[in-house]
Amino acid sequence: MTSTTxxxxxxxxxxxxxxxxxxxxxxxxxxQLTAAGRREIVAKAQSYGFTLWDTAAVxxxxxxxxxxxxxxxxxxxxxxxxxxxxxxxxxxxxxDPVADMLQRSxxxxxxxxxxxxxxxxxxxxxxxxxxxxxxxxxxxIKHVGxxxxxxxxxxxxxxxLGDAGFRVEAVQNHYSLLYRGSERAGIIxxxxxxxxxxxSYMVLEQGALTGRYGPAHPLPAGSSRAxxxxxxLPQLQALTDRMRAVGEDRGASAAEVATxxxxxxxxxxxxxxxxxxxxxxxxxxxxxxxxxxxxxxxEALADAADVDTRGSWEQDI
Length: 317
Prior knowledge:
Blueprint: E1 12-14, H1 35-48, E2 52-54, H2 63-72, E3 81-86, H3 97-109, E4 114-119, H4 125-128, H5 133-138, E5 141-147, H6 151-162, E6 170-174, H7 181-184, H8 187-193, E7 197-201, H9 224-229, H10 233-248, H11 254-264, E8 268-272, H12 277-287, H13 292-305
Parallel strand pairs: 1-2, 1-8, 2-3, 3-4, 4-5, 5-6, 6-7, 7-8
Helix pairs in contact: 1-2, 2-3, 10-11, 10-13, 11-12
Protein name: Aldo/keto reductase
GO molecular function, one term: oxidoreductase activity
Domain NADP-dependent oxidoreductase: 11-302
């Protein structure tokens, strides 16, 4: 069995945007981060107790892992947790593609172990899950999670690992006010009943739920997220306006309300951080206690927006 139970801060930090090249119009988010900026973010996050960093081999095809490792250089390895992923869709054709991809991730991040390793997309649960077992036994990975899996796939992965004395300890799925598939499919209830931590990603819908963007102020031109969201920003206006109002009563932003909502729903949100001040926002989000009627109102407005933000990489769960 794993020697320790998976523990993590109430909010994890996402680095999907860190995979962008920094060139205008080149990247999913249109981010233009610098090495100094990333180091400043890391230093502030670590000092505030946000110490779980989530990345993936596929984010910028290794770039996010590389720059994350560089930004963490100088911080004690025991003072932070690394979460990265095996993505079947980019697997090689060697004898053990999972171990191969993990080794490349370890080299890029400058470490010899990963605290939380995910099967990024299901593809073939029976094929890929068993290859995690020797990595767990060797200590190169400490805990296993599955991402973008449906309930049947989560259960199968857990059964395979269970036969070897391990288990699925975390699930990471897209979950936001606009996309509550994991709730409706019973996945969040399953996690609660089996002591599995549910990590929610795209809580802010790549910025569309931050309150910063609207029809008059669209997301960055040329980015993939602009193509996905700018067309639906008018439909989100009533929701983001109400989120902003809820936040104003507490000295917080709409983004912080969205984060507080995800926490109130019993999940661990993974929030992308591209500026040091985002860390201040996370501390405010942790102090927000939304009333049941506020949660219900926000969810009703989200349903009324009638948008589908499921990513092209996601199956219908």
